[in-house]
Amino acid sequence: TAEPSSDSDSSPTVESVEDNPDGGCHIYRNGYYGSSIDVVEGILEVNIIQMTSIQTTESQAENSLVDFVVTCQGSLPTDVCTVVSDPTCQVSKSMVCDPIVVTDECLLTIRRAFEEPGTYCINITLGDDTSQALASALISVNGGEST
């Protein structure tokens, strides 16, 4: 081991010893390190506050459209991903990600298409450069209607 230096500097000292298996020698390394931490707020919470089925014309009847109204707390997101899974939320059926622009208030509407009637698990993830937050819901799509 090395003796502490008599420097009046209060910076933390890093000291490491490594064994050299060939000759039993030791390597001593002394020095100082510094670090800084930036605290960012991030996206704290996401809520799906409304799910609305969109009425389509007969020519568009093959896909049921649903609007999801989503709010969030914390920093403003820059992208949204929607994962549609089976009702147990175990088997993913599709995933769509889009960049978004949210200005003053985190309130957005996300429209997604469902190819066939059924019950689905929806995961909506809002993200930015430093964080992500997720909200989940079960939705029943009945050929143009959702509950």
List the main descriptive attributes of the protein structure presented here.
5-stranded antiparallel sheet, 147 residues, 0% helix, elongated, Immunoglobulin-like, mainly beta
Element order: H for helix, E for strand: EEEEEEEEEE
* Gross CATH architecture of one domain: Sandwich
Specify the helix fraction band.
under 10%
Q: How large is the radius of gyration?
A: 27 Å
Strand content: over 45%
* CATH class categorisation of one domain: Mainly Beta
SSE class:
mainly beta
Q: How many runs of DSSP E, i.e. beta strands?
A: 10
Overall, the morphology is: elongated
Strand order of the largest sheet: 6-5-8-9-10
Pfam family, one: PKAT_KLD
GO molecular function, one term: integrin binding
Organism: Chaetorhynchus papuensis
InterPro entries: PKAT (IPR045219), PKAT_KLD (IPR046846)
Report what the structure shows:
This protein is mainly β and 147 residues long. It has a domain at 43-55 and 62-141: Immunoglobulins (Immunoglobulin-like, Sandwich). Helix content is 0%, strand content 56%. The protein has no helices and ten strands. The protein has strands at residues 13-19, 26-32, 43-54, 64-74, 79-85, 92-99, 107-114, 118-127, 132-142, 145-146. The strands form three sheets. A five-stranded antiparallel β-sheet has the order 6-5-8-9-10, with no helix packed on it. β9 and β10 (145-146) form a beta hairpin. It is elongated, with a radius of gyration of 27 Å. The protein starts with 12 loop residues before the first strand and ends with a strand. Residues 1-15 have a biased composition (Low complexity). This is QNR71 protein. Residues 71-121 form the PKAT KLD domain. InterPro entries: PKAT (IPR045219), PKAT_KLD (IPR046846). Residues 1-23 are annotated as: Disordered.
